[in-house]
Design a protein that fits this description.
This protein is an all-alpha fold. The protein has a domain at 26-75. It has helices at residues 27-40, 44-58, 67-76. α1 (27-40) crosses α2 (44-58). The N and C termini lie far apart (69 Å). This is Ribbon-helix-helix protein CopG domain-containing protein. It comes from uncultured Mycobacteriales bacterium.
Length: 87
């Protein structure tokens, strides 16, 4: 009997098919994950799915700079000092 992952040939997989994955997280990491998901108003599983998809896209070689590198660079930028901005 084929596994669920290989039950459909590549050209016949339903677009809405999903695979269940078991993931073990330390309690504190799970609490942080659920807190972020709650703030965003989405289930934790949706948040994990979004993060996995974003990381896979970031690993693609068709970009001048990976999204992961761009996100790290952006995270390192400090907010502008309102006193320094002239209008």
């Amino acid at each position: 009997m084929p596994s669920r992952e290989t039950a459909f040939p590549d050209d016949e997989e339903p677009q809405t098919a999903v695979v269940v994955r078991s993931l073990r997280l330390p309690l504190q990491l799970d609490r942080r994950l659920r807190a972020v998901a709650e703030r965003r108003g989405i289930p934790a599983s949706t948040l994990v799915r979004q993060w996995v998809e974003a990381e896979l896209v970031a690993l693609e070689d068709d970009q001048l700079i990976s999204r992961a590198d761009a996100a790290r660079a952006l995270a390192a930028v400090r907010p502008a000092d309102p006193e320094m901005i002239r209008t």
